[in-house]
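Batch manifest line 422
LIGAND: flavin mononucleotide
JOB: complex structure
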Amino acid sequence: MPAEPCVNTPVPGADQYYPLNTPDIGEAFPPELYARNKDLPKLFQPLTLKGVTFKNRIFVSPMCQYSSDYGHATDWHLVHLGGYATRGVGAICIEASAVVPEGRISPEDAGLWTDSQIAPLQRIVNFVHAQGTKIGIQLAHAGRKASTLAPWVHSNAPRTKVAKSQVAHEDENGWPDQVYGPSEIPFASDYPKPKAMTEEDIQYVEDAFVSAVERCKKIGFDFIELHMAHGYLFHSFLSPLSNVRSDVYGGPALENRLRFPLRAAARVRSVWADKPLFVRISATDWAEGPEKGEDGVWKQWGIEQSKVFVGECEKIGVDLIDCSSGGNWAAQKITVGEGYQVPFAEALKKAHPNMIVGAVGMITLPRSAESFLSSGKADVVFLARELIRNPHWALTAAKELGVAVKPANQYERGWAELVIRH
Ligand SMILES: Cc1cc2nc3c(=O)[nH]c(=O)nc-3n(C[C@H](O)[C@H](O)[C@H](O)COP(=O)(O)O)c2cc1C
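JOB STATUS: finished
ARTIFACT:
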């Protein structure tokens, strides 16, 4: 029998030559090859949602880079996101990307409001797919927190230079007079004063989300996440602290505050029917006092209303809730620590056992990440800052948990210990 030719197999169908990884980078080897993979930690068990299989449960949390060219991704994004694809994460969620220009947080935020923004994103998606990694995008509208300065423009690292306010004024590429929210309540005194959205404004934003989804289809994303957290537009509609409207979109009635976010999510679901839809929420405003007063009136956004909201999201077919917190109340007081937001994810999971729930927030240690998943508190973990510090986190986690996973062919010599058969 002739010997099989030994070739450096290319990734089939890729637009450039890339060596094929078998299995994918960050995927556990079959137990027939590595007996130690017989009982895989949850972190490395695949997850399939709407026919999309994530090879492990380590997801890159969306991270604004303040580096876009009028909403267009650049090669910074290719390198930043591409670096995660070559280092074994299960999924990458691209940063908050505005569906209308005035929905950017800062002038250099990412966007998906026009067709010219498709090509640079498609290039990133093609690269990430060629490395066997799933990639999606967080669609967003910053609401009353729009037109603000990028962090390092607001204050430099040694803090020898600090801007007087958060606002990006017109001569700083901002649009402070076109900032919108549910009510005319600014996030803080040094933020722009929002205009209360009219019915027409609400429709316009909803339509913009639908148009952005159409662009997502052309780009070939594997999933979409709707940003409904951190005090941005949808969260500000959900919370009674920021939404004091007296029409069908607001006020004390929970049903009214849910209306716009839910309708937008349902419309997105109807046009993004075949692939996973994630929703990121803030499970609490972290304001002082209870979520509901003794008078029975909701005082701030919290876990009880979040449970109701997630139940409604489940009904319209949302596939995953990415559970964050805060960002809507400037005086929030948060006690942080390893996995500090996991109890919220756990509460949502308990209330809605069939919903896939993601935990995020200071998840840094592989063993604690694994314990959150194996104890059923959440189904996946999203990491941000730890992945900035250590983009190889998935591989280091595999090493620590004793799992044999595939490093990129090109990097294998740095990970010999990970793939050694013993
Ligand atoms: C640089 C940076 C940019 C961020 N940008 C976004 C964003 O675009 N959308 C979002 O929902 N959260 C954003 N976040 C929040 C993270 O996704 C994450 O929820 C938060 O940092 C807590 O996780 P961590 O402790 O792993 O960093 C950002 C965080 C960082 C550090």
